[in-house]
Amino acid sequence: MNSLMTKTFRITLALGAFFVLALTLAACGGGSKGSSTTSKKVPAADVATVDGTPVTRVDYTKWYTITARSSAQQGQAAIVPDPPTYARCIAALQAASVRARARTRLTATAARSQCRTQDTQISQTTLALLIQADWLEKEARTLGVTVTDASVQRQLATTKRQAFPTARAYNAFLRSSGMTNADVIFRLRVQAY
To answer: For residues 189 and 13, what is the distance between their CA atoms, to the nearest angstrom?
Structure first.
């Protein structure tokens, strides 16, 4: 039952990421001319800007790793792509292929292609999350919508009660996902807008 609850929580986070991507593309015009993320030059320390607010490389890297870890199959180690060479990613995919006793050996070229595809998907999902979070916060403020700390804490308590039978299970989830409690609160706050 514990793994089912953890899986449900991961599915909820994954669905949230999917909807964030869809909403981001709609809100930003799919990167068209005049988009808030492409109309201004982005400083080197940042990966994007949302109406002048930077999405820092530090935040992007942190959430990229969290996204990669949360996309791992249940019971398997997360493979975090490491561009531009993808050396660790290639080695991990080839090792997984050997452990799975695949009939054919995964070539470095095929593994590199998988790593590149995974990197693109994780990057898009991560950017979508960070851009959408900022956009939702600004829109909520403009519309006078507030999400109280108390309501977020209630949602956190409900989520923990539904997905994790013990505090130990929740802490194991945090370790495996690379998230902190503050990161979970951030995600719950974004979902509440």
So the answer is: 13
CA pair distance 149, 40, nearest whole angstrom: 33
DSSP state for residue 72 in the 8-state scheme: S
The pLDDT tens digits for 22-47 are 444 334 434 333 344 444 577 888 99
Residues in CB range of 97: below 8 A, 6 or more apart: 105, 106
- Return d(Cα 180, Cα 69) in angstroms, integer: 13
Q: What is the chain's percent helix, strand, coil content, to nearest 5? A: 65, 5, 30
Supply 17's token pair.
């990421």
**Least confident stretch, 12-26, 77-91, 158-172:** 12-26
- The reported pLDDT for the residue numbered 4 is 41
How far, CA to CA in Å, does 152 sit from each of 17, 71, 105, 178? 18, 24, 48, 20
Give the length of the chain.
Answer: 193
> To 10 degrees, the CA torsion angle through 153, 169, 6, 68?
90
Maximum alpha-carbon separation in the chain:
59
Instruction: Output the pTM of the full model.
Output: 0.72
Distance CA 39, CA 171 (A): 41
Strands (E) located in 28-125: 46-50, 53-56
